[in-house]
Amino acid sequence: MLQNKIISTFSKKIARPRELIKFTENSVGMIDDINAMNPTLVLDLGCGTNIFKNRIKGLIGIDILNREEDIVCPIENLDTIFQPNCADVVLALGSINFGDDDLILKQLQQVKKVCKPGGLIYFRVNHNPSHNIYYKWTMDKIKDYTEALNFEYKVSPTFITKARENVYDDRPIDKQLNRNNKQRIFLVWRKHV
Predict the structure, then answer these.
(1) Binning pLDDT at 50, 70 and 90, where does residue 82 land?
(2) pLDDT by residue (tens digit) across 170-191?
(3) Residue 98: CB partners within 8 Å, gap ≥ 6?
(4) Nearest 5 degrees, angle CA 127-CA 129-CA 134?
(5) Among 51, 190, 168, which residue's Cα sits nearest to residue 111?
(6) C-alpha angle with apex 79: 64 to 122, nearest 5 degrees?
(7) How confident is the model at residue 10 (pLDDT cuts 50, 70, 90)?
(8) Where on the phi/psi map is residue 54: left (φ > 0), alpha (ψ -120 to 50), or beta?
(9) What average pLDDT does the segment 65-89 reach?
(10) The pLDDT of residue 16 is above 70
(11) pLDDT band at 13 (very low <50, low <70, confident <90, very high)
(12) Res 86 pLDDT > 60
């Protein structure tokens, strides 16, 4: 079962000191932008170690792992817990990354359902991952889902690279880019009003 594979893959992951700046697109600037919106509800889907908790106003961390989340729930079942149009912002930073086309569509439909009209969806996925549990995201698939769900881009899709922390390296994080690391696709969707 896919959920068990995901749990076994990520259950031992720990938060590292530089976790917030692992991707510059999803770091302090994003936190400041979201907080400036004065949100009442932000859903962090696949929150893992819940690094944005107490950093983003109104944040609830959701994950299928039993670690630091506020609520244990698969993304495809969000509507069993949350009302439609309840979230100002949804974070899906590496969480809608597993399964087949049907599961990905179900999860994105749930995100659309809980996000308020005009709300934002911060979205990051693996591009051409080597591990078989990951969905094979491409720019064409991003475009297809954007059109199918009637989303618009607030931030257009772009390739980003993870800044890799080396615990023995005192160089600034931007000097520690790991050229062998997989690229991610990052974007911000807006749900149509």
Answers:
(1) very high
(2) 444 344 333 445 689 999 999 9
(3) 2, 6, 133, 134, 135
(4) 100
(5) 190
(6) 70
(7) low
(8) left
(9) 94
(10) no
(11) low
(12) yes
**CA atoms within a 13 Å half-sphere pointing along the CA-CB vector of 193:** 1
Q: Give the Cα separation of 110 and 132 in Å (integer).
A: 24
For 28, the 3-state DSSP assignment is: helix
**41 and 91 Cβ atoms separated by less than 8 Å:** no
User: Which residue ranges make up each domain of the chain?
Assistant: 22-122+133-184
- The greatest distance separating any two alpha carbons of the chain, rounded to the nearest whole angstrom, comes to 48
Tell the CATH topology of 22-122+133-184. Answer: Rossmann fold (3.40.50)
* End-to-end CA separation in angstroms for the chain: 37
Structure tokens at 52: 């944005």
151, containing H or E segment: strand 151-161
Number of other CB atoms surrounding residue 164 within 10 Å: 15
H-type alpha helices, 41-183: 101-114, 139-148
Collapsing DSSP to helix, strand or coil, 37 comes out as coil
The candidate with the shortest Cα–Cα distance to 11, out of 76, 72, 59, is: 72
Give the pLDDT mean for 100-113: 97
Alpha-carbon distance of 4 to 65, in angstroms, equals 10
